[in-house]
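Entry:
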Amino acid sequence: MSKNNPHTITIHHEGRRTEWRAIFGTDTLPIKAPIPHYDTLPGAPNALVYEVDLNAITADQRQRLIAHTATKFGYSTEFVEENLDKLGMPVLANDVTMTSTQIGLLL
């Protein structure tokens, strides 16, 4: 994971924390932007989410994410691999705490 990303989220949802640790080996992930947005997720229309910065995760983490997503949602690993960058990895804002080292956000 890149150390240069100023914005991160830390999972506090117990069930998802277990998943994150298995996939990423950590409770904290880099995000694209510090402001959440609304998205439609399976079972959660109009959900407030952060987008994980998939460019900042390692190749091994990406492969584990692909395998986990395929299994969890019933897709082929090929489908997930082909569409991961397009669809992204949204994370429910209510399940995480966002942290930023960018001082401008405080002003």
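Residues 59-73 form the longest helix (15 residues).
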